[in-house]
Amino acid sequence: QVQLTESGGGLVQAGGSLRLSCAASGRSFSRNAMGWFRQAPGKEREFVAALSWSGSSTTYADFVKGRFAISRDNARNTVSLQMNSLKPEDTAVYFCAADARQYGVVTMNKDDYEYWGRGTQVTVSS
Known about the structure:
- The protein is mainly β.
- The strands form two sheets. Strands 2, 4, 5, 6, 9, 10 and 11 form a seven-stranded mixed β-sheet that branches.
- β7 and β8 form a beta hairpin.
């Protein structure tokens, strides 16, 4: 059974940092693009960041550029999201996702991601 499990969420003050991790099990995603999305209450799920299977290509939503950094460790089948300078508007449930295509291009479209974790809550207080 393929699973993506997020961890690292929590409550942090504005300006603080969190590091989210996503561990994959059941299969390797070392040849697949991976991404992070988030969903705030009453809003649609939105793209945050993604990187290619090799980690050499990354893309970010404009609202996190310069603050968040996505990375991966293919040997450990994990992907991480370092979040700095957090703002109250970053409050959301954060989801890890994996593109089912091998060696696919990095995509911001959530419909291109087949595997999803259950999410981890990030709350930023003002």
